[in-house]
Hints:
Largest sheet of chain B: 7 strands, mixed
Low-confidence stretches of chain B: none
Mean pLDDT of chain A: 96
Order of helices and strands of chain B: EEEEEEEEEEEEE
Oligomer: heterodimer
Order of helices and strands of chain A: EEEEEEEEEEE
Radius of gyration of chain B: 13 Å
Helix content of chain B: under 10%
Shape of chain B: globular
Number of strands of chain A: 11
Strand content of chain A: over 45%
Radius of gyration of chain A: 13 Å
Largest interface: A-B, 21 and 20 residues
Mean pLDDT of chain B: 97
Largest sheet of chain A: 7 strands, mixed
Number of helices of chain A: 0
Number of helices of chain B: 0
Structural class of chain B: mainly beta
Number of strands of chain B: 13
Amino acid sequence: EVQLVESGGGLVQPGRSLRLSCAASGFTFDDYAMHWVRQTPGKGLEWVSGISWNSGSIGYADSVKGRFTISRDNAQNSLYLQMTSLRAEDMALYYCAKGVTYYYDNNVYFDYWGQGTLVTVSS
Amino acid sequence: DIVMTQSPDSLAVSLGERATINCKSSQSVLYSSNSKNYLAWYQQKPGQPPKLLIYWASTRESGVPDRFSGSGSGTDFTLTISSLQAEDVAVYYCQQYYNTPSTFGQGTRLEIK
């Protein structure tokens, strides 16, 4: 059974940093691209970032480019999102999502999602 | 970015009746070289993450009941639930993956009448 378990969310002040993690199990992790998708009541679902199977190619939404860094550790079956210079508009439920191919920018739909981790940005 | 617009925003349908949700993309998501529409549908129940229902506009994900079907091509797509069951109450989203960034519709809330 595929499982994706996010952690690391919480309350953070504007301008500060936070690191999200996603522990994956139930599939061959390094056979697939992985993604972060966030959800807010106002903006709905938004793809944030994706990383190919071997970390060889990476992409970001324009809204987070230069502030967020995605990474993965295939030995640990883990995905990460380092978020810096956080803004109020980054406040969301962040989902880890499994891609269906090796590459983050190829056939980018998601067949499994975690339960999400909530990031609250407030002073 | 490709803008995805769903209609209606909310929908109430009687049990056993047909439910139809529409999704329109701001540009075509049909890739001519393989004749595939890069369009997926998800179902999200309260307190749960989205669940993949359909990809390539009409291919049902494994385990999804056959009362769910997807149709359309180019810029106009439809998700149909042929006979609404109580467990189908949810918000439904379309998503295009023709371009990066992939983008989602705003969601359609489906309720029981």
